[in-house]
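To start, one record:
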Amino acid sequence: MRTIVVTGASSGVGLAAATELAAQGDQVVVVGRDPGRLRAATAAVRAAATGPEPGEFRADFESLDEVRRLADRLLETYPAIDVLANNAGGMLGAYRKTVDGFEATLAGNHLSPFLLTHLLRERLRGGRVVNTASRRHQPDGLDPDDLAGDPASWGGWRAYAASKAANILFTAEAARRWPDVLSVAFHPGVVRTNFGVGPVTRFFYRAAPFLTTPQKAGALLAWLATASAAELRNGAYYVGREVTAPDRRLADPALASRLWETSAKAVGI
């Protein structure tokens, strides 16, 4: 039996993955932000579970202090953590700076998962980290030396794409620095969820006929979390079950290392 922490598990891909993993008998830990949706998600995971009672933890990833408290509670509760699925994330409709002073999209989608992974790092030794990225990744808006961003040049999609590029860079650099932890990133597909902001974007992600179901995307996350290590490539980016080259600019180890160093300084580790 594995202990698997899934962030962003209140709905969509995270909930689908948590439900599938619980049905397989794993100890699933459900992490979400909204208390009501978190309770409902935990109930759904509990109904599917064939193993232990699922864990339930609330944290808002726009606050680094909440991430630190989450890590403390996880370390107190689980003597072993086999998999951390960094799935929490989203896109904003307007520029916002977090209480910690960072652009909120990058904070929630990259800095908080980066911090949580570091805080759980020793518990994850011999395990793995699965980072939910996106085919929409683009490093154009990513400046490792400016994590607060510029409100004048900010755009929702640009900030989101930059944060997903950061996920891929983090995965590759983690594989280089932590060879005893298997790290992978993946594109879940264009998933039918409540993703996005504004009525047009939200309608698209609910109604477009070619969208991937949360169940299919969740199954991919579950496979990456549980497949044998021999089946996976450390540091790789997956589209479906295939290793895929991301934007060529993300193959630069110097950029990945620089982002790691400035992220570590930003979150205080």
Summary: The two ends are 31 Å apart (CA to CA).
